[in-house]
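If it is no trouble, might I ask you for a protein's amino acid sequence along with its backbone structure tokens?
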Amino acid sequence: MSIRRLVSVLILVAAVSVGFVYLRDGEPTWFDRIRYPLKYEQIVRGHAKNYDLDPALVAAVIYQESKFHADARSDRGAVGLMQLLPETAEGIAERTGGSQFRVSDLYDPEINVRYGAWYLRHLLDHYGGNEVLALAAYNAGMGNVDRWIDSHGDGDLKPSDLPFPETRAYVKKVLGARSQYRREYARELGL
């Protein structure tokens, strides 16, 4: 047993023994909320509604991309909660009526989630509502996903069919996190 797992078990045992934990299906809800935090729920809920998205999916993408750190910046230059590349965000700004895009705008949770939600809706529409393909494109780019579809012969790729290990893992983690957000934050996300 790893040290991390042992510490988690010891904390759980201590919390249960003093009555601080409500267990559901053998899992502590407080532990899930610590592991899967939620911030900016009004922004997430509002833009999910505006772009006809599952708010738990938007929260899961944010979790996977930045762990809800609005000032996140990747080595590749992606910025903010939903880790948008500046050139992608500039294109979104132009398509959605923005006139004076600045990279610093991406550190604003409201703008970042609006652009990220728009982009996620765009990808879902492009791939006929297929979440696996949309999430793969969010991670690896539309060009890669379009090539994978061409080489696979149809658009029914499963996560295990994705050729990039990072993208396979990304899609699985986002879909798993979405389940957690649905379960733990249904009220906060308006589900």
Remarks:
- The longest strand covers residues 23-24.
- The chain has two domains: 1-35, 40-184.
